[in-house]
TrEMBL record:
Top-level taxon of origin: Eukaryota
PANTHER family, per database record: GDSL-LIKE LIPASE_ACYLHYDROLASE, ISOAMYL ACETATE-HYDROLYZING ESTERASE 1
Residue ranges of domain SGNH hydrolase-type esterase in the record: 11-196
Keyword Acyltransferase appears in the UniProt entry: no
GO MF annotation list: hydrolase activity, acting on ester bonds
Organism: Arachis hypogaea
InterPro entries in the record: Iah1-like, SGNH_hydro, SGNH_hydro_sf
Family from the record: Belongs to the 'GDSL' lipolytic enzyme family.
One GO term (biological process): lipid catabolic process
Name of the molecule in the record: SGNH hydrolase-type esterase domain-containing protein
Keywords annotated in UniProt: Hydrolase, Lipid degradation, Lipid metabolism
KW Magnesium (keyword) present: no
Length: 255
């Protein structure tokens, strides 16, 4: 562990989460904006579905932890929605079981701490023509945009019932007219342009939420923000300039 202690934002999900930490992904954007304000922690891995999430839930979020996360962003659904395999193996989770699993996850996370805030992300769309090998021997597609919509709406609905903030990524991405051309690397995972949409939706929720303390990146305290004689020297040559809150190029895009 390193100090001092500061808020922890945990991203819990599948490859949509893991891949978001590189190539201008939405987690990379959050890590940049919160660099001196919160730790952005990855706990989402390629291939995971809601069954796997339930299996590891208590290991990742133990109730007896000394400190609980300030924010948990949860994404599962895309892998759950894939075509079922006759063996019963694989990523597919039937819709009703998915709803039950996500409900259990939500209830457990809400129990961690009164100060732990939660955001669920609905499944993003997929660009079917861009997917490689997206069908079984009978020609049935493994992933469809329609199945993503169904699982996304189920996630959003259970969040309304549980009073949890949720983001409709499926609709947000498709509001861009050229989404099929610019938002996906491989039809599933997001490009920088697709990640910008997700990041803006998350930042909007964090800005508008009436949470105390606020988790809006513009409102949170800056770490080591005190004046220092080791800061850059001011033009008068006698004082220094505190640059702890100085913006980086492009920060205004996220205001």
């Amino acid at each position: 562990m390193v100090g001092p202690k500061r808020p922890q934002f945990v991203l819990f999900g599948s490859s949509i989460v893991q891949h978001s930490f590189y190539d201008q992904g939405w987690a990379a954007i959050l890590s940049h904006l919160y660099a001196r304000k919160a730790d952005i922690v990855l706990r989402g891995y390629t291939g995971w579905n809601s069954r796997r999430a339930l299996q590891v839930l208590q290991d990742i979020f133990p109730k007896d932890a000394t400190e609980q996360p300030s924010l948990i962003i949860v994404y599962f659904g895309g892998n759950d929605s894939v075509l079922a395999h006759p063996s019963g193996l694989g990523q597919h989770v039937p819709l009703q079981e998915y709803i039950q699993n996500m409900t259990k996850i939500a209830i457990y996370l809400k129990s961690l701490s009164k100060k732990t805030r939660i955001i669920f992300l609905g499944s993003p769309p997929v660009n079917e023509p861009q997917l490689l090998g997206n069908s079984d021997l009978l020609g049935r597609p493994f992933r469809t945009n329609e199945s993503c919509r169904i699982y996304s709406e189920a996630c959003l609905s259970l969040c309304r019932d549980l009073n949890i903030k949720a983001i409709d990524i499926w609709s947000a991405i498709q509001r861009r007219k050229d989404w099929r051309e610019v938002c996906f690397i491989d039809g599933i995972h997001l490009t920088a342009e697709g990640s910008k949409i997700v990041a803006k939706e998350i930042l909007k929720v964090l800005k508008e939420a009436e949470w105390e303390p606020s988790l809006n990146w513009k409102s949170m305290p800056i770490e080591f923000a005190e004046d220092s004689t080791y800061d850059p020297i001011a033009p008068d040559g006698k004082t220094t300039i505190n640059i702890s809150g100085s913006p980086f190029h492009g920060d205004s895009e996220w205001d």
